[in-house]
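Hello, quick one for you while I still have it in my head. A protein chain has come my way and I'm curious about its shape. Can you walk me through what the tokens say about the fold? No rush at all, and the record is pasted right below.
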Amino acid sequence: MVNNATRPIAYKCSSCGVKLESPAELGGKEDKCPLCNHICTVPMTKQQRAAQSGAGGVKGGGSRWRPALIGAAIGFLAAGLVALLVLVALLAMERISGKWATSATQAEQTEAAKLTAGRRATVLATWATQPAGAAGLAESQAKATIATLQDRNRELAASLAKLKVEGTALSAKLDRLQTENGALRTQVAILDKKNQVLANNVVALQAAALA
């Protein structure tokens, strides 16, 4: 007689409706439908439900936490990407206005890079400690998404470097224009003095003619 604890669990795919059987140890976890590749939740046996209830719902398989970890990982990287986009916009505005603060910007870039690298390392370390299971498909999709975000992050870093070069050129141009403006103001002041001298001479000549 087959023990209920080891007997395969029969159920239907929630997507295509085909009848499936999964090993008893996958009860309460996820398994993939061989027909439509849909990820299904395998029903638990009575023994497994009783064990879960007795343990206060603590034991339920590590795979059910995988989607939350994947979502958190994508959220962390997305937040880092948004922060980098905001930083790029601020750098462009400061370069154009001539109010570039080199030390502050370098500190922000360093902190943003540390934050992104730290989050990525945390996510990879979390994945390394998770057991392999039926959620491999979702995990591979999440890794592909993160790889795309990393490529975009590198593109933004290249754009940021280009903005730095352009900002340096704009800053140099602004300094040159300010120098030329100062020289023009000096020449205007000299011309004003000469004009005043000429006006005084005209007044003196008029007075001499009347006398």
Notes: The chain is about 70% helix and 5% strand. Residues 136-210 form the longest helix (75 residues). The chain has a mean pLDDT of 77.
